[in-house]
């Protein structure tokens, strides 16, 4: 079977359809026309995950159509993925085909790459990983110039590092990011860089403080921190928190306080519903928050967190789901209006889109 079809000649049409969809969703709130940030037509996706499917004596990279786990689509090349992923795919396939230790009961492969040229490959097995596997994996990592993570039930072996180091430029400054294996990272690096620059511009130079919810590995936190006095950022994922703390150190930024709390827990803390031990060394009353920045999951903000954001004069909101974005804005529309709007085409050739708005108090 052939790989999923994509046609770069249709790109402009599908992007315009997304723009119109966003305009329609935000029309009830008198939103200004969105700035539109395009994606490269190909080689834009920095991560990819494939199942392996056996046919005869060979195993192939495979993907499946939505809702169909029985009819594989064999992948020989993957033009939406980074050029580095496409370079590594046949070389890795040759390795598992020629080396029984590497190929035995290998069922899934994941690639994580960066704009800066680093790569990490995760190999998943239906068998225990032993010393013989580690010896061969170390040879393969050296040959491919990558890090490798081997996974089997209850075991994880790291050859090299369990993260890649990305470098992104915002307003003339380069920020360094550790992106851990298995943790969320923005898939489209070039569009991510455009998102960071847009948010940096929209936030503006401030003489007050920033509250950030759902900060992840600090993707937005690092550049936005240079626009304000100080930042209080929260994230619930332990791996993301650890990566964010490392990123603060790597970039020499000391104006950010990071707390492992959910948005719901922070709401309780700010409302003084109950104390949190993880906030014992944080003086919440010392902050003068002028802006809250949110980048929630696809479900958007829950009603209580949405109400929390209402207390701030400015709400900078990045969304991966325009429907839940519109629902949250509907809750806030009586006190805040949209003054800036943007569409970021993180996911070309799909209906998914990333968008951003600045809401300011009326």
TrEMBL record:
It catalyses: uridine(54) in tRNA + S-adenosyl-L-methionine = 5-methyluridine(54) in tRNA + S-adenosyl-L-homocysteine + H(+); uridine(341) in tmRNA + S-adenosyl-L-methionine = 5-methyluridine(341) in tmRNA + S-adenosyl-L-homocysteine + H(+). The lineage of its organism: Bacteria, Pseudomonadati, Pseudomonadota, Gammaproteobacteria, Pseudomonadales. Belongs to the class I-like SAM-binding methyltransferase superfamily. RNA M5U methyltransferase family. TrmA subfamily. Its EC number is 2.1.1.35. SUPFAM superfamilies: S-adenosyl-L-methionine-dependent methyltransferases (SSF53335). Signal peptide: none annotated. The gene is trmA. One of its GO terms (molecular function) is tRNA (uracil(54)-C5)-methyltransferase activity, S-adenosyl methionine-dependent. This is tRNA/tmRNA (uracil-C(5))-methyltransferase. The active site is at residues 320, 354. Pfam families: tRNA_U5-meth_tr. Dual-specificity methyltransferase that catalyzes the formation of 5-methyluridine at position 54 (m5U54) in all tRNAs, and that of position 341 (m5U341) in tmRNA (transfer-mRNA). S-adenosyl-L-methionine binds at residues 186, 214, 219, 235, 295. It comes from Ectopseudomonas mendocina (Pseudomonas mendocina).
């Amino acid at each position: 079977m052939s790989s999923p079809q994509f046609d770069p000649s249709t790109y402009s049409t599908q992007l315009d359809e997304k723009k119109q969809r966003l305009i329609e969703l935000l029309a009830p709130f008198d939103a200004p026309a969105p700035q539109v940030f395009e994606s490269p037509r190909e080689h834009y996706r920095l991560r990819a995950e494939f199942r392996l499917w056996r046919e005869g004596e060979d195993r192939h990279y495979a993907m499946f159509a939505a809702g169909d786990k029985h009819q594989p689509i064999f992948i020989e090349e993957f033009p939406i993925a980074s050029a580095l992923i496409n370079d590594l795919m046949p070389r890795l396939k040759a390795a598992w085909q020629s080396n029984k230790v590497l190929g035995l009961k290998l069922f899934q492969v994941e690639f994580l790459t960066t704009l800066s040229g680093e790569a990490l490959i995760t190999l998943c097995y239906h068998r225990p990983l032993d010393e013989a596997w580690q010896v061969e994996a170390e040879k393969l990592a050296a040959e491919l110039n990558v890090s490798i993570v081997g996974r089997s039930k209850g075991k994880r072996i790291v050859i090299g590092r369990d993260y890649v180091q990305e470098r992104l430029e915002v307003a003339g400054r380069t920020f360094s990011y550790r992106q851990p294996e298995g943790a969320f990272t923005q898939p489209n690096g070039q569009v991510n860089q455009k998102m960071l620059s847009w948010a940096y511009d929209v936030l503006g130079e401030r003489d007050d403080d920033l509250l950030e919810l759902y900060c992840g590995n600090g993707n937005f936190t690092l550049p936005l921190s240079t626009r304000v006095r100080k930042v209080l950022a929260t994230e619930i994922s332990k791996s993301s928190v650890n990566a964010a703390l490392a990123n603060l150190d790597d970039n020499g930024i000391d104006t950010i306080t990071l707390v492992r709390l959910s948005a719901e827990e922070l709401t309780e803390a700010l409302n003084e519903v109950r104390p949190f031990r993880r906030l014992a060394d944080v003086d919440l009353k010392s902050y003068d928050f002028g802006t809250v920045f949110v980048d929630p999951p696809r479900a958007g903000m829950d009603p209580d967190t949405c109400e929390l954001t209402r207390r701030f004069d400015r709400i900078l909101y990045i969304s991966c789901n325009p429907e839940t974005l519109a629902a949250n804005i509907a809750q806030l529309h009586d006190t805040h209006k949209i003054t800036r709007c943007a569409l970021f085409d993180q996911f070309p050739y799909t209906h998914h889109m990333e968008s951003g708005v600045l809401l300011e108090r009326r």
